[in-house]
């Protein structure tokens, strides 16, 4: 079955530690995205990547880093520089084929930093 | 600039219709619509790319008025499964994609 995998579902870390969230897709989608969602709010774009070895900052990239070494994988590192890292992190991928557009989200990782 | 969604919340009885609006102060070239159920990831519903474009599947459809910089999502003959928070996402010229704050829809039996 094709889809997006994010692991783990829940993650707990101490303040000051870097943590890497994984995102893998087997949909053969070109573009991948990382979003952050805080309780009762919409999603905010952290980083996105249209092709391998290239990525762009979203609106809230400070304190985060990404890599895109393979088409299938787009890991997100939450660094100790991120002031309020506790949030629900969602990875997504998308593809345009002809006039159609398709986008899927992974199940998300809930990160708690204390 | 985050788009504005209205209403913030709506309660319906099964079978009733609803309209959710999304408007932006910036010129747009695409609008996306999503539904998110509590505790789950959002699900992409549709994208509208052209001014005046209308799209839909089953009883959920949307329109995009490029001149007015707004889009509307239409839910007809609502079902219990339509409950959730609906987000629009907009992309403008020279801007990153940005989500609206969401509209919470509750469908009661």
List the helices and strands and how they pair.
The complex is a heterodimer of chains A (114) and B (109).
Chain A: E1 4-7, E2 10-13, E3 19-25, E4 31-37, E5 43-51, E6 54-57, E7 64-66, E8 76-78, E9 87-97, E10 100-105, E11 109-113
Parallel strand pairs in A: 2-11
Antiparallel strand pairs in A: 1-3, 3-8, 4-5, 4-9, 5-6, 7-8, 9-10, 9-11
Chain B: E1 4-6, E2 9-13, E3 18-23, E4 28-36, E5 43-48, E6 54-57, E7 60-65, E8 70-75, E9 84-92, E10 98-99, E11 103-108
Parallel strand pairs in B: 2-11
Antiparallel strand pairs in B: 1-3, 3-8, 4-5, 4-9, 6-7, 7-8, 9-10, 9-11
Structure overview:
The complex is a heterodimer of chains A (114) and B (109). With 114 residues, chain A is mainly beta. Chain A has strands at residues 4-7, 10-13, 19-25, 31-37, 43-51, 54-57, 64-66, 76-78, 87-97, 100-105, 109-113. The mean pLDDT of chain A is 93. Helix content of chain B is 0%, strand content 57%. Chain B contains no helices and eleven strands. In chain B, the strands form two sheets. In chain B, strands 2, 4, 5, 9, 10 and 11 form a six-stranded mixed beta sheet that branches. Chain B has a five-stranded antiparallel beta sheet with strand order 1-3-8-7-6, with no helix packed on it. In chain B, β9 and β10 (98-99) form a beta hairpin. Chain B is globular, with a radius of gyration of 13 Å. The model of chain B has no long low-confidence stretch (mean pLDDT 91). Classes of the chains: A mainly beta (114), B mainly beta (109). At the A-B interface, β5 and β10 of A face β5 and β10 of B.
């Amino acid at each position: 079955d094709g889809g997006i995998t994010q692991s783990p579902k829940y993650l707990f870390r101490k303040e000051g530690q870097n943590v890497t969230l994984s995102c893998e897709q087997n949909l053969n989608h070109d573009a991948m995205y990382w979003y952050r969602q805080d309780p009762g709010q919409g999603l905010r774009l952290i980083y996105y990547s249209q092709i391998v070895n290239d990525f762009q900052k979203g609106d809230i990239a400070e304190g985060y880093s990404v890599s895109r070494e393979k088409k299938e994988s787009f890991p997100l590192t939450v660094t100790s520089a991120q002031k309020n890292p506790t949030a629900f992190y969602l990875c997504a991928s998308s593809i345009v084929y002809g006039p159609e557009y398709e986008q899927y989200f992974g199940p998300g990782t809930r990160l708690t930093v204390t | 600039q985050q788009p504005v969604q209205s209403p913030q919340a709506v309660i319906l009885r099964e079978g009733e219709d609803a309209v959710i609006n999304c408007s932006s102060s910036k010129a747009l070239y695409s609008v996306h619509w999503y539904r998110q159920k509590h505790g789950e990831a959002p699900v992409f519903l549709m994208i509208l790319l052209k001014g005046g474009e209308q799209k839909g599947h089953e009883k959920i459809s949307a329109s995009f008025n490029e001149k007015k910089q707004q889009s509307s999502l239409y839910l007809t003959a609502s079902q219990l499964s339509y409950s959730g928070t609906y987000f629009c996402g907009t992309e403008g010229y020279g801007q990153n994609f940005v989500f609206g704050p969401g509209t919470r829809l509750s469908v009661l039996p």
